[in-house]
Amino acid sequence: MTGNTRVDLKVVLLGKEYVGKTALVERFLHDRFLTGSAYQSTIGAAYGSRAVRCRDSGRDREVVLGVWDTAGSERYESMARIYYRGSGAAIVCYEVTDAGSLERARFWTKELRKYEEDRCRIYLCGCKRDLVTADPPLRQVGEAEAAEFAK
To answer: Which residue of 30, 100, 142, 144 shows the fewest CB atoms closer than 10 Å?
Structure first.
């Protein structure tokens, strides 16, 4: 492909433990969904990459996404800055059945804004929606509340 340019983009996932960060990464990088004993909690952080092609201003580009899946446990919180430093994008995750996880998402958003300023685009991701589809009363974070926070 003539005129291709390669772009490397560092992406970090942040959020409370067990909200679904690793499931998102596994699905994106390996097109699989780990369940039961196949799933292991992330310790520190895990890294993977994937190249995707996109078209920008009439030019084909290869974008290599370097994805950092960070541990959600508060004991690893002090290490997280190592992984999100220099990120072009951050996916801040919360679980729709856990209101406390949205509070942790607020914390991570403030941290990113404090240290990364405008260089890092921040995306909010509500995880485990399938649980509230099957049992609507489980929802603790409403769509309107999440949308307001995302502004």
So the answer is: 144
